[in-house]
Specification:
InterPro entries: Semialdehyde_DH_NAD-bd, Semialdhyde_DH_dimer_dom. This is Aspartate-semialdehyde dehydrogenase. The protein has about 290 residues and is an alpha/beta fold. It has two domains: about 60 residues, Rossmann fold, CATH 3.40.50; about 200 residues, 2-Layer Sandwich (Dihydrodipicolinate Reductase, domain 2), CATH 3.30.360. It is built from eight helices and twelve strands.
């Protein structure tokens, strides 16, 4: 085949067919879909988090392999959560995530809340959001072709299929992928996913519970030294990360770093995380993985 590394970002059926074909021909495939993420033996990789998962994979040897990118929400959240997890070890991991067309994951106990952007829903949804905003402001009924309900000035449950356990597929990606990436089937993750009217970049409010104490000052120092993470935590001016500020940026921004007052001692933290789901949540990760293989 003559291709050392193949970056796949096509439709699911195309990836499912041509991914194994490329591997059979000796290419290392980096796949940016959910097609192979949870398959046994296929590493699910965030370069700053678990590069060791790619050990043994070499390019140019004629031996192909497949590496999967995680879901964009998982990437952005774990970029911030993993350095803290490595320091204090999570016994329970809960988060609130906001993506661009907003996907919100969470519940009243501080579970994953994800707000997903229209960008995560595709160009058609972004265009329809702009149209709906104009229509609503002009007093017209909004056009609802992409989704069945208005999303301008609104939030609604993510449109992924609902499973028998009451979670939808998008929520379960976060649960399963976190456990695989951390190589810990016992870490507790829960999620609720809602869409909201943000064009681009995810904003995630994350609640973490730990086995070991960790105060907010230690957490801030850890995050400041974490690769791919910038800390924006200015309480005096009430300036913290926003989806707008991280759009078209490579780094994940973290702020609102504080002790969880619902937990005894210093075994719980709340943080707010924003990241561009197209760059860090997809394209950049694939390039980083390819660079690590060279």
């Amino acid at each position: 085949m003559g291709v050392d590394i193949a970056l796949f970002s096509a439709g699911g059926s195309i990836r499912k067919h041509f991914g194994p074909v490329a591997v059979e021909k000796g290419s290392v495939v980096v796949d940016n879909s959910s097609a192979f993420r949870m398959e046994e033996g296929i590493p699910l990789v965030i370069p700053e988090v678990n590069p060791e998962a790619m050990e043994g994979i070499k390019v140019g040897t004629g031996k192909g392999a497949l590496i999967a990118n995680p879901n964009c929400s998982t990437i952005i959240c774990l970029m911030a959560a993993t350095p803290l997890h490595k320091h204090a070890k999570n016994s329970v991991y809960l988060s609130v995530i906001c993506k661009s067309l907003s996907l919100v994951k969470g519940d009243t106990n501080g579970c994953w809340y994800i707000s997903s952007s229209q960008c995560g829903a595709g160009a058609a949804a972004m265009e329809e959001l702009e149209l709906q905003i104009r229509e609503v402001l002009e007093g017209k009924p909004p056009t609802c072709n992409v989704f069945k309900q208005q999303y301008a000035f609104n939030l609604f449950s993510h449109n992924a299929p609902i499973l028998s356990n009451g979670y939808n597929e998008e929520e379960m990606k976060l649960v399963k992928e976190t456990r695989k990436i951390w190589n810990d089937m016992n870490v507790k993750v829960t999620a609720t996913c809602i869409r909201g009217p943000v064009m681009r970049a995810h904003a995630e409010s994350v609640n973490l519970q730990f086995k070991k104490p960790i105060d907010e000052y230690t957490a801030k120092d850890i995050l400041k030294s974490a690769p791919g993470v910038v800390v924006n935590d200015d309480r005096a001016s009430n300036h913290f990360p926003t989806p707008l500020e991280v759009s078209n940026k490579d780094d994940v921004a973290v702020g609102r770093i504080r002790r969880d007052v619902s937990q005894d001692g210093y075994k719980g933290l709340d943080i707010f995380v924003c990241g561009d789901q197209i760059r860090k949540g997809a394209a950049l990760i694939a390039i980083q993985i390819a660079e690590m293989l060279l």
